[in-house]
Every structure is written in C-alpha cells, then in structure tokens.
Design goal:
This protein is of the alpha/beta class and 339 residues long. The chain has 11 helices and 14 strands. It folds into 2 domains: 228 residues, P-loop containing nucleotide triphosphate hydrolases (Rossmann fold); 83 residues, ACT domain (Alpha-Beta Plaits), CATH 3.30.70. The strands form 3 sheets. A 6-stranded mixed sheet has the order 6-7-8-3-9-10, sandwiched between helices. Strands 2-1-4-5 form a 4-stranded antiparallel sheet, with helices on one face. A hairpin with a 4-residue loop joins strand 12 and strand 13. It starts with a strand and ends in a 16-residue tail after the last strand. Pfam families: ABC_tran (PF00005), NIL (PF09383).
Length: 339
Amino acid sequence: MIRIEGLRKTYRSAKRNVVAVDGVDLTVAEGEIYGVIGTSGAGKSTLLRCVNLLERPDAGTITVDGTELTSLPGGELRRARHGIGMIHQHFALLSSRTAAGNVALPLEVTGVGRAERAERVAELLDLVGLGDRGGAYPAQLSGGQKQRVGIARALAGRPKVLLSDEATSALDADTTGSILSLLQDLNRRLGLTILLITHEMGVVKQACHSAAVMRAGRFVEAGPVADLLATPGSELTRGLFPLGPVPDVPGSTVVDVTVSGSHADDALLADLVRTFDVDVRILSGAVEQLAAVRAGRLRLAIPGPDAGPVIDHLRQRGVLAEIAGSSPATTDAREGVEP
C-alpha cells in the first residue's frame, strides 16, 4: 500500500545543510499498522510529511496504493491526496467551527453538497464516538475528544491510508490508550492502512504490527514486530521490554531471554529446572500481549559460571537467549529508543 525507496530530504540554511531523511526504504502492507519510533530530531515527522508530499523529497520515490506520487503534476497530486488522511499532534482544529464544522471542512473544499455533507459528518462523528458532540466547539472538548474530531475529519474523504503525526503525545496515558484502541478498530472495520510516528514505546506495543527504529534520518532496524523480537540485539525489543542495568549475582550467570508467539506461554523455567537440575531465578521481566504477538523478555540468574548449555538448550527450542550485556548496545533504551 505504501512503498518508499531511497527517500532523502535535506534542509538547507545559510550555515549548513541538515539531512533529515537519509536514504530510507519503507514498505507498509495493505491493512497494516506500521509505527516509526525515535527521539526528537530523528527525522520521523519529515518522513511522514514526505508520504503525502507536504514535504517534497530531494530524492527517492513514494508510491501509495499503486500511484507514484513523486511523479504526479499538481492537479493529479491533489486528487491523489484525497486517498490519504492525516491526524496531527495538536489536533489542528479551527476554534471558530464546531466539531461538525471541522469534520465538514474537507467535504466543503471538495464540493460535496450540503445534504450529503451533513449525512457524512453525522456518520463520522458516530464512528469516533462523538455522535452527541457535533455542536460543541473545540474549547468545550477534552484533548481526547479533540483528537477524535481530528480523526473523523481525516476520514471524511474515505481514505485508504491514514497518517498519524504523534497523535497521542499530547494526551494522558488513559486517553492515549482509548485513541489507539479507536485506530485499531478503524483499521479492522475500514481496512485502513495506518502509518504512525511516535516516540512512545507504548504506542508500538499496543497498536503496531510492524515497526522501524529511526535515528539521524535512517532506519536502524525495521520489520514485523514478531521478527524483530526474534533478532539478537534488537533495539526495539530492548525498548519494549527494558530490563535495566545488568546486576551482579554472585555464583550465577545472568541471561536475557526473549520469548514470543507460542513460546511466550511455554513452561520454560520448569523445563530448565528439570533438564539441568538447577534453581533458576527470575530477576526481572514481563510477558505481555502486544498488538502483533504475545511476547516478553526475562532476565534470569543461572547458577554456576557457565550458562552455555542452558543457552544452547533454549536456542534449540527456538527461544532467543544471550548472556546479559553481550549484545552490541548493552543499555536498554539507548540512543533514540525510549521505553
């Protein structure tokens, strides 16, 4: 549904050039929720604005629903944008218009008649749970309600793709959860393909089927969440399940174990006790249900100076296991991945 190849965007100033996006490739499958995560300045927002060409890239191609947007002249590009909705961090609502009036705005711009417009607005407000708030002005709405209006407005033109620019970062945790649940529901009911950017690991954990970690304009890693969980040294995995500094456990070797899919519910510790006749301690960790897969990460203390046989045994069972601190970046949530 979305395919980006070799995307590059540079901002030029009198003193220096800043490369915001540096040769990014990205594929988002139809009906997928894809998250791009990174800290401020990583290039996430620029990447997102390039998808609908609000920012014109210096190089690369952007194809959405089979149409290469980067090759379209102005009029055709404007028509193609009707298939791409966008929701914003700070809602971008017109304070002088009611909720219904804000949702109606894109329909007015495209010349939809008054009766059809009113019917569509009512349908959209019901869809986002605000059927009784159409007459309220933004100042009379909570942050979550404002974002629901923004989502309804983004859906006015019946887009196939929805872009989310830090849509939950201005909201509290409970409201963030409700907005993500709404996006998941819209993804299922409408078949929407959603590309969202965020700096919050909780967003990826709750909503995303696939994800990319972005730093300094590039993707450090990208792919289905389930695949990244099975990748040794994955930054996304450490961000989703941070375990903190490696403790010193006298007489034991500390091992980090990542489980996903069917292995997340296996009796792994009981198996280790039976197989090696050792007392295995859980130092930290958790197993949770993610949007894409049930998964978790555990830090174990294995008695003795050599945990090699235990690690080999776990790997033979298809479980990712490694000596704690042995991956290339040993501190959880380092350099652009925030828990």
